[in-house]
Amino acid sequence: MLDLFEMLGTPEPSTEIMADGAVLLRGAALPFEADLLSALTEITEQAPFRHMVTPGGFVMSVAMTNCGTAGWVTDRTGYRYDRNDPRSGRPWPVMPDCFFALAVTTAARAGYPDFRPDACLINRYEPGARLSLHQDRNERDFANPIVSVSLGLPATFQFGGLERTDPVRRYALRHGDVAVWGGPSRLFYHGVPELRDGVHGTVGRMRLNLTFRGAL
User: Fold this and answer.
1) Which domains does the chain show, CATH number per domain?
2) CA distances in angstroms from 59 to 10, 106, 164, 177, 194, listed in the order given
3) Cα–Cα distance between 47 and 118 in angstroms, integer?
4) Phi, psi (5° rounding) for residue 213?
5) What is the pLDDT of residues 6-17, one digit of tens each?
6) Is residue 100 within 8 Å of 130, Cβ to Cβ?
7) Taking Cα atoms as reference points, which of 36, 17, 205 lies closest to residue 124?
8) SS3 26
9) Angle (CA) 166 171 173, round 5°
10) pLDDT tens for residues 134-143?
């Protein structure tokens, strides 16, 4: 696939190393934000955001939806990927070309040239929402990296290690930043503490997070 940055003649994103196999590509999504936000509107018209319930009965503060061949869901029966939206019973919206292309390009920049995502979990953080430290381990093949795109309000990304008790490093995430982690850091614990209040000029009073996975 063509490199989006070369194709559009946009500057290459700066790279910040977070750990072995994990990088932060600063501003990598900025040249494509209009297409991403337009596509996101179409997705959420088909599969609206909702606050899912954990197996323990906790209602998540982060609102979620999905696109792609499968979507990540949680309810009282457990965490899993499902090909259909449990709310509507219909397949999740198709992953837009701009989503797929950005995920593939940024993964390749991070050292994962074979990544082809089949799922995108979309998180909406409003002020006060948070995501506690966790591992992404519901995917079938951990050889695929995670590609995480930040849009809207700034947030703090907590990135730890293979054990929940490992030291946690903190990175400021801004509109357009893309974090990619895989290989030796694929199962590192990570999270986002409580989002601070504010208003982003394009996205408004929220943070949007597109998280691409190879799920099936």
Assistant:
1) 4-10+25-47+66-213 (2.60.120.590)
2) 41, 32, 22, 28, 15
3) 17
4) -140, 155
5) 655 566 778 999
6) no
7) 205
8) strand
9) 140
10) 999 999 999 9
